[in-house]
From TrEMBL, chain A:
Gene3D superfamilies: HUPs. Residues 23-209 form the Electron transfer flavoprotein alpha/beta-subunit N-terminal domain. This is Electron transfer flavoprotein subunit beta/FixA family protein. The lineage of its organism: Bacteria, Pseudomonadati, Bacteroidota, Sphingobacteriia, Sphingobacteriales. It comes from the Bacteria. InterPro entries: ETF_a/b_N (IPR014730), ETF_b (IPR012255), ETF_beta_N (IPR033948), Rossmann-like_a/b/a_fold (IPR014729). CDD domains: ETF_beta. Keywords: Electron transport, Transport.
UniProtKB/TrEMBL annotation, chain B:
The keyword Electron transport applies. This is Electron transfer flavoprotein subunit alpha/FixB family protein. One of its GO terms (biological process) is fatty acid beta-oxidation using acyl-CoA dehydrogenase. Gene3D superfamilies: HUPs (3.40.50.620), TPP-binding domain (3.40.50.1220). The keyword Protein biosynthesis does not apply. Binds 1 FAD per dimer. Keywords: Electron transport, FAD, Flavoprotein, Transport. It comes from Pedobacter agri.
Length: 245, 322
């Protein structure tokens, strides 16, 4: 089984998010980058599914050379090879197109992504890749089992889940539950240095979105503290002052 | 030119988030001086479809093809794209629900459209069609201009509100050619916890963290949530320890929510947790540690032991409800 896992290079989850240039650019100063945590889940499941010579895992990233350390991290976790599409990842539409173009050539059985990237929270790439390739896509899965040519997945829905089967090639975006994220061991880190990381050119695509400005949430006023022995007054405040109950 | 809104049904009914999407789409149609058409797929009774008129849909396309009774995002996307063509709709709106997230990107590719998902406001009316959407897991917003001719918007629940705007509504049957290859996914089972409020849509949320000490202590959290009609949620360490299911985990790597009221009990407020809940309208924090970072972003706080405070809240709430 040949699996392609799409990874994003995102700011570490503890990053304080700030912007520069009149709030038009994300301030990358001092930011540590990581493999998007959901993509790690997808990658970990891909490794489990191919362990013991049952297949190969390729990771793909759309980004510039600065992303290579993050891609090496994915190789250290256990991917067999990597490819980077050499272009700034302008938006999900562009990224998905690049991945679809690469996947079209290579004939993967399964393409996995994380449920969303923790920077732009898109959750778009998996379904867009599916559409570009005209194959099924299943978003936000919590379980993935593969039996021969058929896969069974559990997809999250409001207040429950759907059990879905799919045959043949498909794309899925993975959430918690699909696998425990694997942590690279020393052998993985050493071998990652020599695993293949190919760099390919991007295909041209018309622009469909453009981020023009960032905003940070309005700061809240100071907290109104209620003494623990007057707990009941909280209910009155929520009812008559905040008007939420 | 017109606006098309996809109205997702669950067991033949529309949820509040759907009426919200219709209200939002109607406001865009008004901005653009055009009409709003809704498209419903699956088994929905006529009186339920007529409800959509209350929020501004003047036409409803009803798709009841047998093979589309259950959700298949690939085929649904084809039908919605066909409807947008028929209606000459250059703007397609839907809820940013779990199904919406699997659908909107496919529609966007079909229509070669820019997609704003997680939209929290109306598009700007300055000819640029810029939409504010959530980014960095609630730590920021990105104002995104949709520069393509066609546009798709997935609206976050609880972001716009339901606005009544009654119009005469005409219901039409609609069908589109379905390719067999569009039906590649098959639903074998749907498991729904019917007695619980669904977290992403919830207006009120009661959430608890490690301060609760163990899963056996969640009884009071569920009781409080039950009295409020709230959904229950939890922090990451709690779902990691399997005290609660992953589907309840809110935060940067869980789900982001924006309820009217978020009550955090025994959660210290790590930056990753705050990211997922900071767009809640009112935040109440109950923690025995007065230095807990969560108090800095709270509207109301009680410094106290959850095991004393929560039972008192339950009593007070019972008294309040009479």
């Amino acid at each position: 089984m040949k699996i392609l896992v799409c990874i994003s290079n995102v700011p570490d989850t503890t990053t304080k998010i700030t912007f520069t240039n009149d709030n038009t650019e994300f301030n990358t100063a001092g930011v540590q980058y990581i493999v998007n945590p959901y993509d790690e889940i997808a990658l970990s499941r891909a490794i489990e599914l191919t362990e013991g010579g049952k297949g190969t895992v390729t990771v793909i990233n759309v980004g510039e050379a600065a992303n290579d350390p993050t891609i090496r991290k994915a190789l250290a976790i256990g991917a067999d090879e990597a490819v980077r599409v050499n272009a700034a990842p302008r938006d999900a539409y562009f990224v998905a197109k690049q991945i679809a173009e690469y996947a079209k050539e290579k004939d993967f059985d399964l393409i996995l992504t994380g449920r969303e990237s923790i920077d732009y929270n898109g959750n778009q790439v998996a379904a867009m890749v599916g559409e570009f390739l005209d194959i099924p896509s299943i978003s936000i899965i919590k379980k993935l089992e593969v039996d021969g040519n058929t896969a069974t997945v559990e997809r999250e829905i409001e207040g429950g889940k759907e059990v879905v089967t799919v045959s043949g090639k498909f794309v899925a975006s993975c959430a918690e539950g699909v696998a425990e994220p694997k942590i690279p061991n020393m052998r993985g880190i050493m071998s990652a240095r020599t695993k293949p990381l190919a760099v390919v050119d991007a295909v041209a695509l018309e622009e469909v979105t453009k981020i023009t400005k960032y905003e940070t949430p309005a700061p809240r006023g100071t907290v109104k503290l209620i003494p623990a022995d007057q707990t009941e007054s909280l209910i009155d405040l929520l009812h008559s002052e905040a008007k939420v109950i | 030119m017109s606006v098309l809104v996809y109205v997702e049904q669950a067991e033949g009914k529309f949820k509040k988030s759907v009426f919200e999407a219709v209200s939002y789409a109607k406001a865009i149609a008004d901005q653009q001086s055009t009409n709003l058409t809704a498209i419903s797929i699956g088994d929905v009774a006529e009186n339920e479809l007529k409800e959509l008129g209350k929020y501004g849909a003047s036409k409803v396309l009803n798709v009841s093809a047998e093979q589309l009774k259950t959700f298949v995002n690939q085929a649904y996307a084809s039908v919605i794209a066909a409807a947008s063509e028929k209606e000459a709709a250059d703007i397609v709106v839907l809820s940013n629900s779990f199904s919406g997230k699997g659908l909107a990107p496919r529609i966007a590719v079909k229509l070669k459209a820019g997609l704003a998902d997680g939209a929290v406001e109306l598009p700007s009316n300055d000819g640029k069609f810029s939409i504010k959407k959530t980014a960095f897991s609630g730590k920021a917003f990105a104002v995104t201009e949709l520069t393509s001719a066609n546009k798709v918007i997935a609206l976050n629940p609880n972001a716009f509100g339901v606005k009544e705007n009654a119009v005469e509504v005409a219901i039409e049957n609609f069908s589109a050619d379905i390719k067999q290859s569009d039906l590649g996914t098959v639903i074998k089972d749907i498991v729904r916890a019917t007695d619980k409020v669904s977290l992403p849509d919830a207006e009120l949320v009661v959430s608890a963290g490690r301060g609760l000490k163990g899963p056996e202590n969640w009884g009071m959290i569920e009781e409080l949530a039950g009295l409020l009609g709230a959904a229950t949620a939890c922090s990451k360490p709690v779902s990691d320890a399997d005290w609660r299911p992953h589907s309840e985990h809110v935060g940067q790597t869980g789900i982001a929510i924006s309820p009217n009221l978020y009550i955090a009990i025994g959660i210290s407020g790590a930056i990753q947790h705050l990211a997922g809940v900071s767009s809640s309208k009112v935040i109440v924090v109950i923690n025995k540690d007065p230095e807990a970072p969560f108090f800095k972003v709270a509207d109301y706080g009680i410094v106290g032991d959850a095991f004393e405070v929560v039972p008192k809240l339950i009593e007070a709430l019972k008294a309040h409800k009479g």
